[in-house]
Amino acid sequence: MKIGTVQFNKYPVFLAPMEDVTDMSFRLLCKEFGADMVYTEFISSDALIRHIQKTEVKLEVADEERPVSIQIYGKEPEAMVEAARICEAAGADILDLNFGCPVKKVAGKGGGAGMLRTPEKMLEITAQVVKAVRLPVTVKTRLGWDQESKIIVDLAERLQDCGIAALTIHGRTRAQMYTGEADWTLIGEVKNNPRMYIPIIGNGDITSPELCKQAFDRYGVDAVMVGRASIGAPWIFGEIKRYLLYNEQAPKESFAYYLSVLKRQILQSVARLDERRGILHSRRHIAATPLFKGIASFKSTRIAMLKADSLEELFDIMDHITL
Prior knowledge:
Elements: E1 2-3, E2 6-7, E3 13-15, H1 24-33, E4 37-39, E5 43-44, H2 45-49, H3 53-56, E6 68-73, H4 77-90, E7 94-99, H5 104-107, H6 119-132, E8 137-142, H7 152-161, E9 166-170, H8 185-191, E10 200-203, H9 209-219, E11 223-226, H10 236-246, H11 255-272, H12 275-288, H13 299-307, H14 311-319
Parallel strand pairs: 3-4, 3-11, 4-6, 5-6, 6-7, 7-8, 8-9, 9-10, 10-11
Antiparallel strand pairs: 1-2
Helix pairs in contact: 1-11, 4-6, 7-8, 9-10, 11-12, 13-14
């Protein structure tokens, strides 16, 4: 499979863009464990063109994580075009347009999945961005705004006509947010539409190697994107790739091994930011990691980890976790 000039091997598996999750430290670990492509946190086009420092930091990518896609969102064509050019200058391999974020502060203002209510404007933005940059432009969106407006099959063709190089579809509507089950049948319908020729990337509820293989085999997608299941568990990419390529389960490592991976992520985040901000940015991974699930009477330890404000304190708590 190719996206523009970027070539991928069999069964490509991508790290989904997630706000406050997919910073460089996490992306590098996911890449190390086997993610074929990683995405930045989504970036506001309005903030980017105003040169907001907190936003510009999100443009930083390392050569070790390539290929990397920078994702932007917004609702005004002019701002999206200018932001796209900034991303191209920053060295993105691929530019992704976010038309799928369901959160109120984005979709409620017309950006992200809010664009599913104004598809003509979505298409206008997409066409203008494609014309404005030389790098491959892709789109990530959802099935539709709600159950009564699942427009993705027709919309996919129209986005393809705008010149995008690939399309990622999350198998939920905006109204569903992240509840219920992802519906992959419509993703499969898009992929099997004889008029579609660009790669189709499926996203939603991929929580295990078996489900990832099923997505490829049953729906025929060109790539699969993994999101929430990777938070606090970058090793899931190694497990998935081993199953896809060799049809075997990856051996389970020791608790100490997985804990060391989390510690390494925290240390990298601290080195890139500073101690306070690095720890803050790591808390979502600490809270979500499956590593601590099932440990008896763990609530107080989890709270203590999430309140720790120094590496010494946090690592001391982690080192005293007993199974």
